[in-house]
Write a structure and sequence with these properties.
The protein has about 400 residues and is of the alpha+beta class. The chain has 13 helices and 16 strands. The chain has a five-stranded mixed sheet with strand order 5-4-1-6-9, sandwiched between helices. It starts with a helix and ends in an 8-residue tail after the last helix.
Amino acid sequence: MISVEDWALIRRLVADGVPQRQVARDLRIGRSTVARAVASDAPPKYERKGTSTSFEPFEARVRALLEEHPEMPATVIAERVSWDGSITWFRDNVRRLRPQHRRPDPADRLIWAPGDAAQCDLWFPPQKIPLEDGTKSLLPVLVMTAAHSRFTVGRMLPTRRTEDLLLGSWDLIRQLGRVPRRLIWDNESGIGRGGRLAEGVPAFTGTLATRIVQLKPNDPESKGIVERRNGFFETSFMPGRQFASPADFNAQFTDWLQHANSRMVRTIKARPVDLIGADRADMLPLPPVVLHLGWRNQLRLGRDYYVRVDTSDYSVNPTAIGRTVDVTADLDRVRVRLDGRAVAEHDRVWARGMTITDPNHVEEAARLRRQFQQPRSVPASDGLARDLADYDRAFGLDGVSA
């Protein structure tokens, strides 16, 4: 076989008018070789003859298994076909064959109408945030992106429980100023799984007149807008930043999002801040009623005079001991009421397992304890006591011996 350089030289000489016999003589090659080079449309290519491998006798059975079970592990296939050679060599061949038997899953281009949908997701920043007890923790950030305009809002939450997810969602919807007609979620347990919404979520969506769309597994394209934003946060917001607390994170994040929403988005060739007006125009109005969201509980206050919200305990005025109190909490405050009267109010802590005590509650408990431990005084006689002999005389028993 001649080289590519000789092939090119032969074709050039013949094209210049040199006879093929002279080209063969000058280059000292056969005339048939010159003729084949002139007749060929492509440069010569070395092709190695196929050789039989140890995998070939098993290939048909491997293909049959992959046809029925495209994701079957190579080790299981090796066991089914009784392979006793190198598992690495077997894996390489299965890896080569597997794409030919996978069922294609096409993803259509999605068009998002104004006001139609907002994509929701939890982003976990790759940096631990300092908490009240001196520890640090990775905390979730709820992110909501209007699908048409790509306008994004977000805030850090203390937990991914339903109560906090709904509180965070309502806060972000108020930042948008209107209600998207659909809120698109994956199978986040605090929102719902398997087509069933978590407790409290139907009431939330019903009050807003919106609906939750839960995506099926392996459907990243339907929520790709907000997930790409999460990657953008890690490369553009996080580098070089330090945070003193969750409140400091939220302040920095909110300020940065104002600039991010003013940047050109390549895929839509527009700035989110310029399109959010059209998005809002087709969204639903905010509800006229007050949403009762957050942590809510009703219990009889024990002698310990503490109530628990999430994993932390908060003191209550001990005068409420033994009575039924209403406990409510949002992302910032914990409140306890007795017959509509406040008997405790604390800043909510995000650390786990803390005990929050109001010194006034401790003083009141000490006063009540002293009062309880003091013996009750016996009241002095008021002169109204009656002689028992009067009853004997009244019943004619006077002078009768027992």
